[in-house]
């Protein structure tokens, strides 16, 4: 696993991918921090929360080449014909992408130091936001890796990852639309106000259950919920496992 | 040693391999021939563990590739048709990575890589980016990759494709050197190459084995008997009758004849020993000078065409 991690992590810096991702992240973090700084009210936690909405751009850039590139160049043959376990290949690539996030995040740590040295405050709420950021990054990276394992075209991998992550980010909007839609349909069928409201709430609850942003909204106030972290981690493990199965299946299908 | 037993590979409705069995002995070079789409690469991919067979088994030095993949894969070095290279790594970085993948210990690494560098002659380019190397060097790096971990078996899928004639010769030399210390399975379209390198040939056609034999026996078997061509000066009738009298000669036929030179085709029965010396002495005794004397056995090319054409 370490071999794959090392190669993939360094690969980000052999190609423009790592630099582009770091540049975009640094620009966004710098821009948000500066506008807060200029208005005189710096809040690292709200900065980190705003940065989360850019997962949709940064994660596909990082993960699009992970497996697609190997497939295209024929280097995936190394994973199957050397005594290396396929799951450690997936894990190595996952950790490499997560490590790139850690490098990008140096920006925010520097900003924290600047904040504290200027008399600002970095407390539980801030650290909570940082923790949530990394758990969500892990979750979305696993989504991106699955997208990359499904085909040999980086652009398509990036688009698939983009759409999937966007869906996660829009879950709260989707849930409110679904709620009113189900509400209306059930009311037309049953003419029962109470039942239709219940059905609408039900569907909204199911969709909200999947929403990592809603689950972790308390972290910024310093209230940590283990279940939210377990949720993110579980989603990550599920997607990594599916990615592993996709690789495993390749052995049995036409190349 | 590799034992391949009744391999079947089904791709949807298409049966790519229809029950292939053969054995590769230690320190043997096995040529793997077949037209495009015959199943060569599929077979090689199954042996190396890249693909799984629908049924049948592959045992590498006694280890089943599906049941004990780690042990089996340790003994195999594979160079696919498209070498698995990362163009933005240097040769050294790349081979280090392969050492990591093949779990070569830190102590052995330097010694092993140094011997690989000198064996495949890439020491002078080890700090260059693979993407900037010529095709011949890329292929060498591909072979170096296969040699990492000191496997006893090398599987090379068309290693000379796309190389210029000089590079082809060098590659052939390299494979010959490697064959002294490794079992090698080599597939190729260049039949003369197989003829030059391989001890035995497996000809595969349409997912089935069409023939397995040594090259000489294969040609002999296909032609039914060996033939010799003799061109000389002298009386055609006398020469023909004298040669026909040699035990083991089945037939003598005139191929070409003019005032200056005659050409005859001598058919030797299958069981007879080498009679070339007897023919020489007959000619020498009669004082008939020989201008050309060679075997007319079909080349591998002809054998290949015959077999794959379904004859």
The chain pair forming the largest interface, with residue counts per chain, is: A-B, 24 and 31 residues
C-alpha termini separation of chain A = 24 Å
- Class computed from helices, strands and strand pairing of chain A: mainly alpha
- What is the approximate shape of chain A? flat
Task: Sketch the topology of chain B as an H/E string, one letter per element.
Answer: EEEHEEHEHHHEHEHEEHEHEEHEH
* Major beta sheet, strand line-up of chain B: 6-7-8-3-9-10
What percentage of residues of chain B falls in helices of 4 or more residues?
25-40%
Major beta-sheet overview of chain A = none
Query: Low-confidence parts of chain B, pLDDT < 50 over ≥5 residues?
Result: none
Mean pLDDT score of chain A, rounded? 89
What's the average pLDDT of chain B? 86
Portion in helices of chain A: over 70%
The CATH topology label of the largest domain in chain B is: Rossmann fold
User: How much β-strand is present in the residues of chain A?
Assistant: under 5%
| Rg measurement of chain A, Å | 21 Å
Figure out the total of helices of chain B. Answer: 11
SSE order of chain A in H/E notation? HHHHHHHHHHHHHH
**N- and C-termini, Cα separation of chain B:** 31 Å
CATH architecture of the largest domain in chain B: 3-Layer(aba) Sandwich
Subunit organisation of the chains = heterodimer
β-strand amount of chain B: 25-35%
């Amino acid at each position: 696993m370490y071999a794959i991690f090392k190669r993939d992590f360094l690969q980000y810096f052999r190609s423009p991918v790592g630099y582009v991702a770091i540049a975009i992240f640094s620009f966004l973090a710098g821009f948000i921090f500066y506008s807060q700084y200029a208005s005189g009210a710096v809040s690292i936690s709200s900065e980190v929360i705003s940065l989360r909405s850019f997962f949709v751009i940064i994660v596909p850039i990082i993960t699009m080449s992970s497996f697609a590139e190997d497939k295209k160049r024929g280097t995936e043959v190394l994973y199957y014909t050397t005594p290396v376990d396929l799951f450690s290949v997936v894990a190595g690539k996952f950790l490499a992408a997560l490590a790139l996030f850690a490098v990008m995040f140096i920006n925010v740590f520097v900003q924290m130091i600047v904040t504290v040295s200027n008399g600002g405050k970095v407390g539980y709420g801030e650290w909570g936001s940082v923790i949530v950021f990394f758990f969500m990054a892990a979750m979305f990276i696993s989504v991106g890796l699955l997208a990359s394992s499904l085909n040999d075209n980086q652009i398509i991998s990036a688009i698939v990852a983009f759409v999937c992550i966007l869906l996660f980010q829009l879950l709260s909007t989707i849930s409110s639309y679904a709620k009113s839609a189900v509400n209306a349909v059930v009311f037309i069928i049953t003419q029962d106000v109470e039942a239709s409201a219940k059905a609408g709430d039900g569907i909204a609850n199911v969709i909200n259950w999947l929403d990592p942003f809603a689950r972790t909204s308390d972290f910024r106030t310093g209230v940590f919920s283990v279940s939210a972290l377990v949720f993110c981690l579980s989603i990550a493990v599920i997607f990594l496992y599916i990615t592993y199965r996709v690789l495993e299946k390749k052995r049995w299908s036409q190349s | 040693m590799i034992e391949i037993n009744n391999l079947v590979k089904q791709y949807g409705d298409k049966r790519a391999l229809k029950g292939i069995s053969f054995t590769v002995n230690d320190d043997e070079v096995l040529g793997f021939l077949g037209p495009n789409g015959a199943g060569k690469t599929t077979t090689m991919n199954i042996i190396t563990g890249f693909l799984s067979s629908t049924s049948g088994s592959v045992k590498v030095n006694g280890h089943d590739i599906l049941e004990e993949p780690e042990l089996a894969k340790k003994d195999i070095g594979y160079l696919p048709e498209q070498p698995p290279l990362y163009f933005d790594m240097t040769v050294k970085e790349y081979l280090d990575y392969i050492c990591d993948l093949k779990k070569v210990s830190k102590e052995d690494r330097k010694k092993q890589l140094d011997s690989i560098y000198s064996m495949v002659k890439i020491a002078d380019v080890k700090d260059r980016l693979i993407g900037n190397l010529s095709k011949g060097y890329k292929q060498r790096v591909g072979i170096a990759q296969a040699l990492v971990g000191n496997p006893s078996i090398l599987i090379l899928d068309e290693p000379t494709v796309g190389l210029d004639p000089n590079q082809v010769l060098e590659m052939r030399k390299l494979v010959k050197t490697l064959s002294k210390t490794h079992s090698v399975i080599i597939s190729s379209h260049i039949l003369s190459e197989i003829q030059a390198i391989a001890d035995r040939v497996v000809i595969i056609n349409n997912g089935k084995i069409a023939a397995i034999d040594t090259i000489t026996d294969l040609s002999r078997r296909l032609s039914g008997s060996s033939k010799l061509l003799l061109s000389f000066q002298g009386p055609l009738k006398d020469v023909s009758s004298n040669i026909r009298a040699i035990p083991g000669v089945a037939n003598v036929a005139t191929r070409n004849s003019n005032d200056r030179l005659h050409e005859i085709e001598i058919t030797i029965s299958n069981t007879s020993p080498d009679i070339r010396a007897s023919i020489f002495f007959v000619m020498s005794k009669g004082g008939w000078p020989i201008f050309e004397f060679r075997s007319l056995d079909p080349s591998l090319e002809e054998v290949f065409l015959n077999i794959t054409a379904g004859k």
